[in-house]
Task: structure prediction
Amino acid sequence: MKLYQKILLAVDLHPKCDNAAVKKALAIAEETGASLHLIHVIEHIPAYSLGQAYPSIIDLEEEILKEATKELGKLAHKHHIPADKQIIVMGSPKAAIISKAEELKIDLIILGSHGRHGIALLLGSTASSVLSHAPCDVLAVRIKE
Amino acid sequence: MKLYQKILLAVDLHPKCDNAAVKKALAIAEETGASLHLIHVIEHIPAYSLGQAYPSIIDLEEEILKEATKELGKLAHKHHIPADKQIIVMGSPKAAIISKAEELKIDLIILGSHGRHGIALLLGSTASSVLSHAPCDVLAVRIKE
Result:
């Protein structure tokens, strides 16, 4: 019996940390014979934070989405992860990760953790909420800074 | 390169959930060639909670320690885990697990999670604190209830 079949790795598109997390996730995927999906969640921008540079929140979010898609593509390409396993979602990180995990029947969610940042950055105070609401196992990998 | 060398599984001595967690931890240990330690943490009893049955907190804690050691022994015996890999500590679960992980140079901490209880019971609101303070990777395994 395979331990895991489908792994979902949440990346925050900080190149240095992501590379280490992807390497570890790939090693686990290889060891267990699982497939690996990457997910990056873009949080919606609060209206009050809008400056003068963009005519609307929607334009700014589209710009961020375009850049994030490019960055995720670069990361995935470097590690030979195909386009259909690169996921970008807008929303709350916790809800987006859990909902995608359910949709794809993921059995292991991996989160990169680099000390003060990492999990804190990605999930804020909702880390324990992800743990108790995730439909599957959750692995926090420690990335040496 | 082995993914993990030394795994520490925190158990709460709820027989049904522990058995599932131990099975999963053993499967991961086998898959990665790691050794498996079990740890159970007994929290200190607040003085105000003392009833009439015990002359002192110390007597009560000793009684709990004796019972927990027996229960952990049974669980370990069932899964062929030797005595030198059975650890009982008194203190704060978060601090005890992290300190033992450092002492034993553990590279993966596994916590059993059974929905509402589990991680919540074991670590309370400090789950995210364990994640960000652990010296190593942390895996929360979901136990079906």
